[in-house]
């Protein structure tokens, strides 16, 4: 007997900062393309890309043949640019889920990043001088919504692993 899985609202948050150029960006495109191929017409996908600022490239859209085609064309056109602000991107993706009119049974956020955040954190040392430190983005777990628990995980992209896994 075949059991159908519950429809999903999936928000992908994609790091397109300079640190993701080359093999990392190609792996990101392959992963999202593969993920897209597993979605069906009951599922919805949103694509948010971020470097210096987050941009919603595709709002939550049903993954009909037309929706999947649009997602593939958006993914294929991704390019890297300067800056990286994962914090702002995560604020935007939670807003997407918070503002949904229709809510599928399952809601998920997938953050694909190499965890390099260019946000500057100012620290004061003993001489009252400011020191700037580049932050490594944390893994985040959020239960912001009472109706769903959302787990957001980030892991470093390893191009060597991608060659083995997706070849």
From TrEMBL:
Region of interest (Disordered), ranges: 119-138
Residue ranges of every copy of the VWFA domain listed in the record: 9-152
PROSITE patterns per the UniProt record, alphabetical: VWFA
Protein name, entry field: Zinc finger (C3HC4-type RING finger) family protein
């Amino acid at each position: 007997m075949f059991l159908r899985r519950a429809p999903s609202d999936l928000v992908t948050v994609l790091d397109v900062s300079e640190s993701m150029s080359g093999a990392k960006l190609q792996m990101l495109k392959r992963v999202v393309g593969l993920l897209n191929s597993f979605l069906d017409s009951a599922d919805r996908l949103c694509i948010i890309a971020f470097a210096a600022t987050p941009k919603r490239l595709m709002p939550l859209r049903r993954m009909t043949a037309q929706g999947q085609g649009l997602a593939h064309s958006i993914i294929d056109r991704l390019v890297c640019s300067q800056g990286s602000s994962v914090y702002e991107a995560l604020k935007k993706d939670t807003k997407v889920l918070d503002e949904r009119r229709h809510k599928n049974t399952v809601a998920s956020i997938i953050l694909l990043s190499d965890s390099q955040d260019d946000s500057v954190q100012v620290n004061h040392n003993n001489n009252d001088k400011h020191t700037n430190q580049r932050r490594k983005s944390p893994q985040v777990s959020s239960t912001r919504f009472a109706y769903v628990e959302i787990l957001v995980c980030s892991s470093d992209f390893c191009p060597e692993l991608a060659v083995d896994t997706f070849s």
